[in-house]
Specification:
Layout (H helix, E strand, L loop, with lengths): L2 E9 L3 H13 L5 E4 L11 E3 L6 E3 L11 H9 L4 E3 L3 E4 L6 H19 L3 H4 L4 H9 L1 H11 L11 H10 L15 E3 L3 H12 L3 E4 L2 E8 L5 E7 L2 E12 L3 H4 L9 H4 L2 E12 L13 E4 L6 E4 L5 E7 H13 L3 H9 L17 E14 L10 E4 L3 E4 L10 H16 L9
Parallel strand pairs: 1-2, 1-11, 2-8, 6-13, 11-18
Antiparallel strand pairs: 3-4, 5-7, 9-10, 10-11, 12-15, 12-16, 13-14, 14-15, 17-18
Bound molecules: flavin-adenine dinucleotide.
Flavin-adenine dinucleotide (FAD) binds next to helix 1, strand 9, strand 12, strand 16 and helix 13.
Length: 432
């Protein structure tokens, strides 16, 4: 088997791996760099689909960011001249009809949790689950109601800490309103996040080879300190030798690479939740007649959050946790999932609206992410450096090693910090 030799190998062509490659190329001009991904397309969890005929671009993976809280992503989009648009949806729980009162009730519950959060020490916030903390503060019935109404199953996860759960509630565009926060100016890319991926790939400009359908299965070290990467490809196994390696993979994936040997304190403490995004596309935006444009309906059904855009002809559904599993199963098994969907939202429509009067979708699809996002299973982040270094020549990055876990911004921060250490001594000693 012939062995390819590189100065730096980057494993994972998601936004973090591609942004890291761009950085490496600027720090080490002339270095031999290649990127590898097991998928047949670059981009990882961002996954935009253009529905054609001006129907809109639907994000089946990551989709929104806040320039205030996500400055690196904002500057990357600005660098590539990507146009952005507002991502603003008014959270509206369906609870016996569209319930504005429910928002007031949820805000009261959140305020009580908020006060208690600030008077609880950080170490305690990391050692108790959000659920346990909140049940103590507001009682079980009120916390259950809050979780039901806000459309996030993950808030109930026994391993989600008070610290991370509170941030999820306070920072997500759908629920930040419950804390009276209007400051976040959430944005989406007009061309979809995949167009940012396209720009990043184009920017490699032949300076770094992009190898798709290359799944890293193992890594070993040579006598001279070089790394041998073992890939499975469509054409059989391939070995690559690299002086330095950056692992820009979802962390649960890095933990499964033979020979990478991430410490147990990392791998044993990672938890992930499934996510699903699905859409129904229609010839007309029928929801305008019901005042639903610009609303995000939250429901207690498996269709946890339903977005009704003002400028596109699809309805987007976003569910997490147990609901994501149920919805996935229903999409696979229920040939008439659209009727199930309409029956569920009929609660929100004016009394007497016949479901049969609503149009059938022209198109529908979904994308299920079994490990959609990861978080620490209790306890503090023990990797405050932003990345995990393995000897002099390898580093693992993950949004989990930053305070922006669950967001692209965290993945970018982590990749930047990993590249900084990997490139420290590279300029004077590129691999020969
Ligand atoms: C449904 C959903 C909605 C989200 N919404 C948002 C949002 O609105 N805003 C936001 O900021 N974030 C959001 N996120 C999170 C965001 O997608 C991630 O934080 C981000 O994609 C992380 O980037 P990454 O490059 O580190 O990892 P990824 O995007 O996961 O890319 C990693 C790449 O590694 C590849 N890979 C994995 N294993 C191997 C292997 N063994 N060998 C080779 N290649 C491998 C994968 O194929 C993938 O391409 C969302 C995630 C999901 C699933």
């Amino acid at each position: 088997m012939s062995v390819i030799r590189l100065d730096i190998a980057i494993v994972g062509a998601g936004i973090s791996g591609l942004a890291a490659t761009r950085k490496v190329l600027s720090e080490m001009p002339g270095a031999r760099v290649a990127v590898f991904d097991r998928a047949d397309r670059p981009g990882g969890r961002p996954c935009s689909r253009d529905l054609g005929d001006g129907m809109g671009i639907v994000e089946l993976g990551a989709g929104r960011f806040s320039p205030n809280s996500h400055p690196q992503l904002a500057s990357l989009t600005a660098h590539y001249g990507q146009a952005t648009k507002s991502f603003e949806y008014r959270l509206t729980p369906i609870h016996s009809g569209l319930s504005e009162q429910a928002i007031i009730l949820m805000s009261e519950i959140c305020n009580e949790i908020d006060k208690n959060y600030h008077s609880t020490e950080l170490i305690q916030r990391h050692s108790i689950s959000l659920r346990r903390a909140a049940v103590r503060i507001v009682g079980k019935a009120r916390f259950d109601l809050l979780v039901d109404l806000c459309g996030y199953d993950t808030l109930n996860h026994p391993d989600l800490t008070f610290e991370e759960g509170f941030r999820l509630l306070r920072q997500h565009p759908e629920t930040s309103i419950l804390f009276g926060r209007q400051d976040n100016n959430w944005r989406a890319l007009v061309g979809g996040l995949s167009s940012l991926v396209d720009s990043l790939v184009e920017d490699l400009g032949g300076q770094a080879e992009l190898n798709l359908e290359h799944e890293l299965v193992g890594i070993s070290t040579e006598g001279g300190g070089d790394h041998i990467l073992h890939f499975e490809t469509a054409y059989g196994q391939k070995a690559v030798c690299a002086g330095k390696v950056l692992f820009a993979l979802p962390i649960w994936n890095s933990c499964r690479i033979n020979g990478l040997n991430l410490p147990t304190m990392v791998c044993a403490r990672i938890q992930s939740v499934p996510l699903i995004k699905a859409y129904f596309a229609y010839a007309e935006r029928w929801w305008g007649d019901f005042g639903l444009e610009g609303r995000c309906l939250s429901t207690t059904s498996m269709f946890r959050k339903i977005y009704f855009p003002k400028d596109a002809n699809y309805v987007l559904i976003y569910s997490d946790g147990t609901s994501a599993n149920k919805l996935h199963e229903s999409f696979v098994l229920d040939s008439d999932i659209h009727t199930t969907f309409l029956q569920m939202i009929s609660d929100a429509l004016p009394f007497g609206t016949e479901i049969a009067a609503l149009p059938n979708p022209q198109d529908s699809d979904y994308r299920f992410w079994p490990h959609g996002i990861s978080f620490w299973r209790n306890g503090l982040n023990l990797i405050p450096t932003g990345h995990w270094q393995i000897g002099q020549g390898a580093a693992v990055c993950s949004d989990l090693f930053t305070s922006k876990l669950g967001w692209i911004e965290g993945a970018l921060e982590s990749a930047e910090s990993a590249v900084r250490v990997l490139c420290e001594n590279c300029i004077s000693s590129p691999h020969n």
